[in-house]
Each structure stands twice: as structure tokens, then as C-alpha cells.
DNA sequence: GCTTGACCTCAACCATGGTTGAGGCCAGAG
DNA sequence: CTCTGGCCTCAACCATGGTTGAGGTCAAGC
């Protein structure tokens, strides 16, 4: 079984796929969309640096929270491009995501509370109900958050 | 301006669109997907009963929470088919949705808390972190929840 | 009886987030 | 030196949630 040659610090696409639990096709897709990067061997094969595993984990985690790839890409673009991100760099991103999450949780809670009122009055339909009059719910997420949680095949990170 | 003839209890698709803030094309789409129903006039035009406004409001509200049309349809299928749903019928649905919402909020909170830990340790990537090891996050939502909140054009229910 | 606007159907198209398959290259092992 | 597994590209396809446009009908009003 001819296995591709790699140095200690490089991973093939297959290795990243195995270790991250993400399909090769998805990795290609993420690369096309600018979420991850690779170098190429003389034979035109992709090689990923180890921190790609972190990036992929970050991508998946973020998707779980309902964030679009575009938004995730924008977040990742904040990472330093010319050095390997430090734990501190990741911590900054995580902190930003926490804020995101707090906001989303607050929205859901507001919705839930409105819904409770609606249960009381049976009004779930018109003008009275905040739920159905959501001009005050906050900002712009665009389309594309495909799932809130739990995609069909989830086993990110075996190792 | 020839306006379609309607009785007091029937609404044209245009009226439903205006009052619900949902595009006519979306109403057609919902009907194809079985989320709403209409009768037809002799001239083959749709007529909606008034509780369609409630249904549409329910659909939009549910979409805001990230629930797919398929799931919404299944919920609506629980409504009595041969009589107009009562406030109580709607209350039962709303209660079910509240449970849904509670679960989603709990998920997001768990994710957020994991994330906070990750910030502490800078681990956001591998095996250690619950966030990236989500085999325990709960159930099956399938694909398709397109947005968590706030679509681009939100003005449901003017009247 | 013609115009006009609201409505109809059906097919094509858009974006997101991917997967699948065809056809081909590269490299290590026998 | 060939076989084979892993990788490559590119195009097509899938689902969700719709929108857009072409071409045609229906009915109120002048």
C-alpha cells in the first residue's frame, strides 16, 4: 500500500480527513472557499500544516452553532497569516465566538419567552405577538446556516 | 383595478402575502410542500381561510428558531384537519415548540461553556475539547435549517 | 368588448454546503 | 515494469428554501 511521503509536520488530505472526521471532498471545498490552505508537493499533492486540524475543528464547531462558512472564513482571516497561530490567537477567536453565542442564546430565550406568552393567549399569529413581529431581533446573519447542531455524521477528532 | 372577489372568510394569495409579509412565491412554495392549503375558485384562483395567517405566522416563527420546513410541516400535521384549529390547538403546538427551544438553548449553552473552557486552555482543536467532539450533542435535525434568526427581509405581519 | 391587474403554471435559476463520478497522474511494492 | 492506492481536477448532482420570468387565464370596469 503506497502511502504518500510526509514529513513530521505535514499531513496529507487523507490524514486530515481521518483525524478531523471531515470528508476529503469537504476539505477540498473548504480550501476552495478559503477556509484552509495547503502547499503542494512536486507531484501536486496537498500538504497541510498541523494547525490545519485546529482550523478544521474550529470550522466544524462554528458550524454547529449555526454560523455560515462565509462568517467562519471572515473570523479565520483574523488569524495571523504568516506565523502559526498561537493558543492566544485561538483564544481571541474563541472569545469572539462566545460573544456570538451569548447573543444567539439571548435571542432564543427572548423567542421562547414570547412563545410562552403566546401560549397563554393563544395569539400565535398576528401583530400582538413579538414572535411574529420580529423586526427587533438582531442582526444580519445572511442565509446559509445549515444546521444548528448535529450533522448526520459527527465524529470530529479521533486523534 | 380589478380586485378578486372574496367572501369575508376567504383571502386571496395576494392578501395573505400582504398581511403575512411573505412573498406570493413563498406561499405557493409552502403549499407545494404541504404546509398550507387552499381551495380554488371556479376560475382556479386560490382562496385561503383566515387561519392560514396563523399557519404562516407559525411557519415563519419556527423558521426563525432554525427549524426546517419539513419539521414544521410535521408539527402542523398534528393540527386537526377537518375543523379550524382552536387557540388550544395552537397552544399545544406552541408548547411543543417551547420544549424544542429549551433543548436548543441548552445545547448552545453547553457549547458556550465548553468554549469558555477552551479559551482557558487554548485547546480548541483536538480530542480534549467537547466542542470538537460532539458525539454527545443531541438529535437529528437533518439538513436545512437555513438561518437561526433574522432573514434578510423581515416584516412579518403588518395587519 | 377591450384593457388591466391579479392570478395561474411550469421551468429555470440562485445561494449554501457539500457529495459523486469520470478520467488521469504519481509513487512505492512486488 | 506493472499494479495499485492515494491523490488530482472538473463537472454534475443533491437537498433546502426560495425567486424570477415566460406565457396564459380570469374578471371587473370603462
Automatic annotation (TrEMBL), chains A, B:
<dbReference type="InterPro" id="IPR015358">
    <property type="entry name" value="Tscrpt_reg_MerR_DNA-bd"/>
</dbReference>
<dbReference type="InterPro" id="IPR009061">
    <property type="entry name" value="DNA-bd_dom_put_sf"/>
</dbReference>
<dbReference type="GO" id="GO:0051537">
    <property type="term" value="F:2 iron, 2 sulfur cluster binding"/>
</dbReference>
<dbReference type="GO" id="GO:0006979">
    <property type="term" value="P:response to oxidative stress"/>
</dbReference>
<keyword id="KW-0804">Transcription</keyword>
<dbReference type="Pfam" id="PF00376">
    <property type="entry name" value="MerR"/>
</dbReference>
<dbReference type="GO" id="GO:0046872">
    <property type="term" value="F:metal ion binding"/>
</dbReference>
<feature type="domain" description="HTH merR-type">
    <location>
        <begin position="10"/>
        <end position="78"/>
    </location>
</feature>
<dbReference type="InterPro" id="IPR010211">
    <property type="entry name" value="Redox-sen_tscrpt-act_SoxR"/>
</dbReference>
<keyword id="KW-0001">2Fe-2S</keyword>
<keyword id="KW-0238">DNA-binding</keyword>
<dbReference type="InterPro" id="IPR000551">
    <property type="entry name" value="MerR-type_HTH_dom"/>
</dbReference>
<dbReference type="InterPro" id="IPR047057">
    <property type="entry name" value="MerR_fam"/>
</dbReference>
<dbReference type="GO" id="GO:0003700">
    <property type="term" value="F:DNA-binding transcription factor activity"/>
</dbReference>
<keyword id="KW-0805">Transcription regulation</keyword>
<dbReference type="GO" id="GO:0003677">
    <property type="term" value="F:DNA binding"/>
</dbReference>
<dbReference type="Pfam" id="PF09278">
    <property type="entry name" value="MerR-DNA-bind"/>
</dbReference>
<keyword id="KW-0479">Metal-binding</keyword>
<protein>
    <submittedName>
        <fullName>Redox-sensitive transcriptional activator SoxR</fullName>
    </submittedName>
</protein>
<keyword id="KW-0408">Iron</keyword>
<keyword id="KW-0411">Iron-sulfur</keyword>
